[in-house]
């Protein structure tokens, strides 16, 4: 039996990871911020490598998003669905329900709201809009409930079921706008007839920023109060932190799965309603530029904190607007997704610093 | 007449199922080591775009395949680094990879849209075997990548259950503490098999752009990576069942086209929904089965391993 | 250094966040001896041995194996040096067979597995040492005692000559313990060094040659078993004279609080875990459940607290029937549960004391103002409980996972007791606690008993059961082997029942 080598006395450092007891607040803030910076750096390298000037591109993006009143208002416009879907996703994530289906829930909310607008067009605005609101919420909520049922009763993984339903929802809307709901005066484009004014959300001034902004902000407040100050919010948090402890304390996990997915889907559905009622004023192909997926990154970056979601949604809205403005330089909108993915990588990687401390040790071994 | 339609559907099922099979085999290996990889969709896209791009640039589809493998492997390396070394949340990391992969492939592929592939993986009927009635046209009239997948399945099966390395892999997935205690390198094992999984996903993607379509389109995987993940559960992490499952899914895909061709009037959108709805149904049934039979996921799936955990 | 010294550890220091696990510890083991590493829970014994086996690296100190200084960078290197360890929680891969577990990581089998060869070798080792086991059996099919045998064979198969066993008797019946000691003696007599980590004095006196005592992470001393006494060892272990609380009160049970009639339940794998169990617990009494872990105790606790389905039979609490109801109904019936898994079930480790106390408080009308929780009141209540029960914590908001085992248990019990429960289920309540905490927990249980609560005490420690319980019931393979008044029975009788004889049966 051989004995391991005797270690020689070495000089130099050894980097180790040591588990932390508690995490200083600074880290919670520093990690997301430096992740964004790091992602932009890597993105810059990528841009340079493919023949573009990163500084130029980034400047164009910033200018497009924040350089003018128009830019800022467009950024807010994008931030509205991002906030709503981000909130929805964050609530589900609190309970470790991986709701990847916000995109589909958004589409179904848009569908339901459009249904009201198109088939009861003669109602006055003060009835129409609230009805669309409710329909939008319900459409998304029920689409969120669908995968929640097998999860609650059979333990079926919701990651895949919610995702599959995204494709189904998008195809459903496509079916409608290419088929039975297609606008006969629409030159064969995949969209419905335009909504009446009564079905359109009022806007602020000359911008496209619509009342949906108030929904989003109100939702933030409601979610915050819910989680921190109500019994239901407490249950949601406990189930997410420790399912065993939750059962032990008598909480009904199945019921909560259903309720949380209803709320999560409902918020995403509202985003859909806000888009068709406030921006497009009709149901059409591609009402969402992947908001449901971006929502996941927003939720994670915000560490599921409702207030942070406001700020991060705004920033990501800027990213989207900036992404559109660089299309004239020949860069596809997919560039934005690349950056988003990079940001999430760095956030994920950086999170280890919240749980471990880097230690430099001098000496041997 | 009826017969040949059935046969052609079966042959189409194999073609449609092959990318799923590659991705699922890769995911089985990764998950067997205890790491959940939800970035398969992004890796397939990365493989599809790089395979296509290099084929266009070099005129050689095998070279394209190699780059597809590298692309998938590289993305998997990121996932491994995040999840194994940095112990990040495996679900979110996989999602990040899918988003990133979608973005990168869209970015790189912009200039490739509309360009036909100069060279693709052509059908190579195997002499003698291709003439066997029934089995011949269904099994032995495909391209090289399909044949390679035929061989991969028993190879992986043998590897998992009959070799020392396969035993070590399974032990890391079931109980990394036990494996570590007897000197198996848990980190290395997880890295290796996550990367191999990514490489296989890359092949699956390359198959789409270099054989199945063959062309490059944004989002061309259309959720196949996710279906592959569901397939792994259906297959109870076994390569042979993955084969069966992949071809069944492929059949559902192929059926859609055939129904239209046969003049059955279902709007194409509903036919396109079939694979996704089918996946949900299969997932529900498979989950019930694993609960009943008490077999299931590798014990440490999604859990990062930390030796000094106290 | 004598030639016969196989292991020498000097000046070992190891810290974890917030805990100094080992502080300048020395340890030595010789050829042919059984050396006990003694100390109460939390003294640092497991940490020291985990360093020896290469799982942890010491912050300071040196290790010498067979006269050469070594540094282990991984368990692999320790195994190569001839060190083998059987941990408290077995490192076995459950779905694998015995043979597969044994060859895992071993350099011998080669690329392609030749299982028949391995099975032959296993059979020869097991015959030699009297450790019977079927190489083809899957681990999850084996009993805990059999799994331990597999772990021991694993060490021998690798040719280990330094064998370490961590609390090996916790999972054995008294008879199995005797068998194990015989095996250990045999292995030592062949020239190996056998180290057993334990906190049980009577085991040390029964089997060890020398004893090293640790206390609070520090090295206290090493003595020859023959030259010392139980009292001296206790003093070294604990640092003071200890009088463990015991049940001296009159036995005055009241009404039946818990009645179990013909209860049948399944375990997680779907096999029967409780078979026709009949038990009652009365007001003002402690019913102790003895038995080797894994014979249905966990399922019993879960059935009674609503966490596990009852296949058939009746559960009555205070004359009201509860059949397959939710844990909530049981909680509302006035049942408190001190679970086996403190951090996994009874508490949420990442949250602070207030939010953990809230687990039982958040539904109460007094703690809510309409739709909203009254955080102020909840914080106040938490502060009161912490003071009353002497829970030491850095701050009321710091995550409870940072608290020591004893304080965690104090917090948990404080929460459960504060609801004035009529019935308490206590599962292994003092497992892993230091003597001071054990005293406190026992005291609280006895106080509750005096106040009229009915207590179901599940424990693996016969000493504890005999000290506290008024009546003792023994579980074996899910069946109740017998229920006896404590003063009317002996450890031997209970031990026999734990091994499968029924009450009153004569052993041939």
Secondary structure: elements and pairs:
The complex is a heterotrimer of chains A (365), B (310) and C (508).
Chain A: E1 13-19, H1 25-49, H2 54-66, H3 69-94, H4 102-119, H5 125-154, H6 158-178, H7 212-229, H8 231-241, H9 243-248, H10 253-280, H11 291-301, H12 306-325, H13 334-350, H14 352-355, E2 356-362
Antiparallel strand pairs in A: 1-2
Helix pairs in contact in A: 1-13, 2-3, 2-12, 3-7, 3-10, 3-11, 3-12, 4-5, 4-6, 4-10, 4-11, 5-6, 5-10, 7-8, 7-10, 7-12, 11-12, 11-13
Chain B: H1 2-32, H2 40-58, H3 61-85, H4 90-109, E1 123-125, H5 135-139, E2 141-143, H6 144-162, H7 164-174, H8 176-181, H9 186-212, H10 224-234, H11 239-261, H12 268-293
Antiparallel strand pairs in B: 1-2
Helix pairs in contact in B: 1-6, 1-9, 1-10, 1-11, 2-3, 2-4, 2-9, 2-10, 3-4, 3-9, 6-7, 10-11, 10-12, 11-12
Chain C: E1 5-16, E2 19-30, E3 34-38, H1 45-52, E4 60-65, E5 68-70, H2 75-80, E6 83-86, H3 98-103, H4 115-129, H5 144-157, E7 162-166, H6 174-189, E8 193-198, H7 201-207, E9 210-215, E10 218-224, H8 230-238, E11 256-266, E12 272-282, E13 286-290, H9 297-304, E14 312-317, E15 320-321, H10 327-332, E16 335-338, H11 342-346, H12 353-361, E17 368-369, E18 372-373, H13 375-388, H14 405-417, E19 423-427, H15 435-450, E20 454-458, H16 462-468, E21 471-476, E22 479-485, H17 491-498
Parallel strand pairs in C: 3-8, 3-9, 6-7, 7-8, 13-20, 13-21, 16-19, 19-20
Antiparallel strand pairs in C: 1-2, 1-4, 4-5, 9-10, 11-12, 11-14, 14-15, 17-18, 21-22
Q: Which residues of chain B sit in consecutive blocks of at least 5 with pLDDT less than 50? A: none
Q: Considering DSSP H and I runs of 4 or more, what fraction of the residues of chain A is helical?
A: 55-70%
Given the C-alpha coordinates, what overall shape of chain A results? globular
Number of strands of chain B: 2
Q: Kindly state the mean pLDDT of chain A as a whole number?
A: 88
Instruction: Supply Rg of chain B.
Output: 19 Å
Span of the ends, CA to CA of chain A: 23 Å
Instruction: Name the helicity range of chain B.
Output: over 70%
Q: Helix segment count of chain B? A: 12
- Give the ordered list of helices and strands of chain B: HHHHEHEHHHHHHH
* Continuous helix count of chain A: 14
Strand elements of chain A, count: 2
Strand order in the sheet with the most strands of chain A: 1-2
Pick out the low-confidence regions of chain A: 1-11
| Protein structure class of chain A | mainly alpha
**Strand numbers in spatial order across the main sheet of chain B:** 1-2
Beta-strand portion of chain A reads: under 5%
Gyration radius of chain A, in Å:
23 Å
Give the name of the CATH architecture of chain B: Orthogonal Bundle
In angstroms, what separates the terminal alpha carbons of chain B?
68 Å
Major sheet details of chain B:
2 strands, antiparallel
